Every structure is written in structure tokens, then in C-alpha cells.
Amino acid sequence: MANRRDDLERQINLTFAFLSAESYDRKYLTQSWIHTNLEGYRHLSGDAFRKALRRDLATLRKIGVPIDDHTITSGPDEGKQAYSLDPDGYELQDIDFTAEEAAVLGLAGEMGQELELGAFARSGWTKIAASGANRDLGAAGMAVSTAGDLRTLSAVDFDAILHARRLGRRISFAYTRNRTEAPELRTMDPWGLVPERDRIYLVGHDLDRDQVRCFRVTRTSQVRVLDDQVENPAPPAANLQEVVRAQLRRGSELVDAHLIVEQGRAVALTSEGTPLGDNRWLLKDVDRTWLVRTAAAHAPEAVVTQPQDVIDEVVALLTTAHERSS
């Protein structure tokens, strides 16, 4: 199941990158850019990367995602292999699911309402999820998952953000800082959606604060496309992934940790670490909350051995998950 989960997360990250290519000021995505920038590919060696990318592109094309091949003919990337996606052609045909395939949709969001399922079908996420229908469904009731923000991302809001990006329009949305505070109405010139360590962030120019901001999508809701055109577009050289990481570094507690990971497992963790031999890994300057949740999701294939306070938090999270599921 872990290998299929890693494949799915890579394919989702790749699709997000295609949909947000304009935000990166790129018409095409080159192999080297994908290898350097996208989670799930960065840790792979040259041959392993090319094999994984070919397989992921074939999977996306098989389910109807319109990806074209290009050889760049000018500029600094001349001669390189590149790929592009036609956003206007990204509306896919309806698809019917068996009961088993429907269970897989939990990886792409628990869309219980008919309207939500319709939006996900149009955007293609259901087909990406359905392509993994042969995975082991025995753990469908797990209380801890690496599906991350995809489990709670509203498909209607997702469609609204992509629609606003294509039209160059502003959006408004409700932002909830925490469960104890009432939602705030925010207005933004949206630049793109960026996946980062099992989370998804909405990046753009926050008009209420007059500065570049990143909002975790699980804290946003009721996205509306406004009539006003964007007046603060992303700078031509902006790297949205780095924008997100810079904001996270300012507001996160970073830790170093040692782990033991079964060979070939828990790629979400090993891709961020340095191998020490004997299945031991060192992760430096990683977000503490992300580490605890991700280590718990991959247990027992991944075990934190240091520091003790992180171990205690992982154990507490797993204990809570077990109590809720029993």
C-alpha cells in the first residue's frame, strides 16, 4: 500500500505543478525542473527518476489528463525534454465507480455530497484516485493518513481557485485561524496552489494585509471568484514553492530527528533525510508537526529514535488514533 500511496502523491504533485505552471512563470515543465522541485522525485537517482516520471505521465494520460511532449528549441533549456498541460482540456468525462473504487476516493477527499463529487470529476481528481483501485483497501479505516489536506480540500473551492487563476480574477474566502475564532473574510489576488509535505497552500497577494501570504487550504472555505481583475500578479521570477517554505520557516518549530525506516518505505520521510546506513536516517530542520504526523502515518515502517519529545508525540498521536478507531 505504501508504494501505491507514494505513486499517488507523486502524481497529484505533478498535476498540481502542471496546473500552476503559469505561477512558476513557465510554459513547460522540463524533466530537470520536475526532478529538482517536486516532492516525490527529488530523492530519486537519474534512472529511477526517469522511470517514475514515465510511469506517472503514462498513468495521467491513461485517465485522460491532456499532457503534451515538447523539445525546447531555444533559450537556456534548448534541447531539453519538456511537458505541458492544456487547462481548458482538463475537463474529463464522467466515470462510474465500483464499490471498491469508491473507497479509493478517500485518498482524494471524502466527498460525501453530490456537488463535491461532480466538481472533483470535472477536475480529474477522481480519476487519479480511481487509477489506484487495485490497492490494498484493508486499512481503509485508518485514523492516521498521509493523504493530508486532500482529505478535507473542498472540490468546489478547488475549482473556484483554478477558475480565478485562468481568468486573472480576484477571490474572496473565509479564513479560520483556529477553531476558537470566527472566520475572517479575506480578499486575494491568487497566484497558485502549492503542495508541501502533505499539505496544500493557497499563495497570492493578500489585499487585507497588502503582502504576499500563504494560507493552508484546510483553513479556507467559501471561495468566491470576484469580478475584479488581479492587480498584483506573481512576479515573473517567483518560485511559489520557496514562498511557501519561507513562510513556514518563519512560523514553524524546526527539529532534527533520527529515524529507522524499512528499506523502500516511507518515501515522504526519506526524501527529506540523509541516509546513515542500516536503514537509519537523519532529518534536519524539518517542521515538527509535519514530522510527528508523517511518522505516525508510516508507523511501524518508520520509527523515530530521537529526540525523545518527538517520540512521545508520535506515540500519543497513535494512541489517540487507536482509541478513536476501536
Automatic annotation (TrEMBL):
<dbReference type="InterPro" id="IPR026881">
    <property type="entry name" value="WYL_dom"/>
</dbReference>
<protein>
    <recommendedName>
        <fullName>WYL domain-containing protein</fullName>
    </recommendedName>
</protein>
<dbReference type="Pfam" id="PF13280">
    <property type="entry name" value="WYL"/>
</dbReference>
<feature type="domain" description="WYL">
    <location>
        <begin position="158"/>
        <end position="225"/>
    </location>
</feature>
<dbReference type="InterPro" id="IPR051534">
    <property type="entry name" value="CBASS_pafABC_assoc_protein"/>
</dbReference>
